[in-house]
Specification:
This protein has 25 helices and nine strands. It is an alpha/beta fold. Strand 3, helix 6 and strand 4 form a beta-alpha-beta unit. Helix 13 crosses helix 16. The chain is globular, with a radius of gyration of 26 Å.
Length: about 500
């Protein structure tokens, strides 16, 4: 014994209890004892997990110029059990949500847990972490990727007695309608749409976090990042290392940042195709995924080879392998580049084949991949290739229902063909009588539901150069529809004042 030193003996039971209840991350990271499915973290552990590869743009940075959003979101969280944050990829939704979580935690003295989906069921983990009486805030990042989100909502809406839970979710803008459909079936949430950052804010982020002061560097990074903070940070790191000439466009940024890793780790084409597939379809259970196995076989990779490659990629920290069965890409930005690199730059796999394999069963993942490529690597050659490949598959379809499904997903890639198809569909509708005096347009303005796929499709053309033609089709559709039984969604898709004018000028004078 050492004089003056107090020693407290802790039994193995106390240690195991503390690891189970208070420090599950330590048990997993250092003892290789997974206590859960490794999807739920406290704030600091979530940040460490996000930033662990040292390649991604860190979320452990100062949050700038989001004061209005913070105030609005805190107020909404006080009023509602569920708050949704929408916005484009890379504009800082995750960082903002973490700031809200910290502020709300400190204000109400509650526990915060952060969720990052890895493809496994989350419900049992929730019951484990949210088992003690008290107040909780649950932050779900990329809720559009969360497995069985409806079950998570069920637990939050009707938790066990003594437990009160609120949720804040981030959702990619392209997936918001689908996710809202799931959520609104369970609860009425509050929503917040986050805008891209201004050039001046991007420059301030670079100055404060990377100490970049050169105006030429700041101007160029702001120009190519287009309000995307994640892309701006990646560009800033590259510019500091390789100079201004290395950040001419977004492709150069990703190439400089991940090119060395690709050369080092992906000398085997089978390995890069495997990593690409995990990005495209992940997270998924790699042993029983029919589409993944089909694409692998089409590219000369058998299941045993793929399993071995998964372990190699996991050891290199390029992918995460959970419970020896679920795989997902570790670094989101690297995954984004792999989509472009394999499909567009190298064309290791024909996009036509990917569309054919994924559209029927994994349409959302396909659309996500194409949106990601189009947003981050926006150039005419890239867009033209995607357009050609989509139209090639679309033109070969003979079944009318399948054509309509392609139109719903890809109408912006062939506007003329889409509008002609919609007109033909309206032509074939039977005209119905309309009691125009009993129809109150003002009353319908606040209605968020929709019963017409044609109306929804036409609303999706709101940025089209053929705006007048689209409005004519809307009026034409109105004339052949039974307005008493229609529920509209124009408030979010087409200007309501314009609709009222058209309604008064055209519809009344024609009936």
């Amino acid at each position: 014994m050492i004089e003056g030193v107090k020693i407290t003996l802790i039994g193995i039971g106390s240690v195991s209890h503390d690891l189970l209840i208070n420090y599950p991350t330590i048990a997993s990271e250092f003892l290789n004892i997974p206590i859960d499915t490794e999807q739920i973290f406290e704030i600091d552990d979530f940040i460490d997990k996000y930033d662990k590869t040292k390649m991604n743009a860190s979320i452990n940075m100062e949050l700038l110029h989001r004061d209005n959003e913070i105030e609005s979101l805190i107020n909404k969280l006080e009023e509602s059990k569920v708050v949704l944050i929408f916005g484009k990829s890379g504009i800082g939704k995750t960082r903002l949500a973490l700031e809200i979580a910290r502020i709300y935690r400190d204000k109400h003295n509650l526990r915060v847990f952060c969720v990052k989906n890895n493809g496994q069921m989350l419900y049992n983990d929730l019951k484990y972490y949210l088992s003690d009486s008290g107040d909780y805030l649950l932050f779900i990042d990329d809720a559009n990727k969360t497995t069985q989100l409806e079950h998570v909502l069920d637990y939050v809406i009707a938790p066990p007695e003594g437990i009160n839970v609120r949720i804040i979710m981030t959702i990619r803008d392209y997936a918001k309608d689908r996710v809202k459909q799931v959520i609104y079936n369970k609860v009425i949430p509050q929503e917040e749409e986050i805008d891209v950052l201004s050039d001046e804010v991007i420059k301030e982020i670079l100055s404060n976090n990377l100490d970049i002061k050169n105006n030429k560097y700041l101007d160029q990074i702001a120009k190519i990042s287009k309000g995307n903070a994640r892309l701006a940070i990646l560009a800033g790191k590259i510019a500091l290392k390789n100079g201004l000439s290395s950040i001419y466009n977004s492709v150069d940024i990703f190439k400089y940042y991940y090119g060395e890793i690709i050369e080092k780790e992906f000398f085997d084409r089978k390995k890069i195709i495997s990593a690409f597939l995990i990005t495209l379809l992940g997270p998924f259970e790699y042993e029983n995924h029919e589409i993944a196995i089909k694409i692998l076989r089409d590219n000369g990779i058998n299941e045993d080879e793929f399993y071995e490659l998964c372990y190699e990629l996991d050891n290199s920290e390029i992918i995460d392998l959970y419970m020896d069965k679920v795989v997902k890409i570790s670094d989101q930005s690297m995954g984004d580049y792999l989509l472009y690199y394999v499909l567009i730059e190298k064309k290791y796999i024909a996009l036509v084949d990917v569309i054919k394999n994924l559209f029927k069963r994994y349409r959302r993942k396909l659309i996500y991949a194409l949106n990601t490529i189009g947003t981050l690597f926006n150039n005419e050659e890239c867009f033209k290739y995607i357009e050609d490949q989509v139209n090639k598959v679309w033109s070969a379809i003979e079944d009318d229902k399948e054509k309509f499904e392609y139109l719903k997903s890809f109408h912006v890639l062939n506007e003329e063909k889409s509008l002609a198809y919609i007109k033909n569909k309206i032509d074939k509708m039977d005209k119905e009588d309309i009691l125009i005096d009993s129809f109150n347009l003002k009353d319908k303005e606040k209605n968020n539901s929709i019963k017409s796929e044609i109306v929804e499709l036409l609303g999706g053309f709101k940025y089209s150069n053929n705006y007048e033609l689209i409005l004519e089709l809307i009026i034409y559709y109105f004339k052949k529809s039974h307005l008493r039984h229609q529920i509209f969604i124009f408030y979010s898709q087409i200007d309501w004042d314009m609709i009222r004018i058209l309604f008064n000028m055209n519809m009344r004078e024609n009936y």
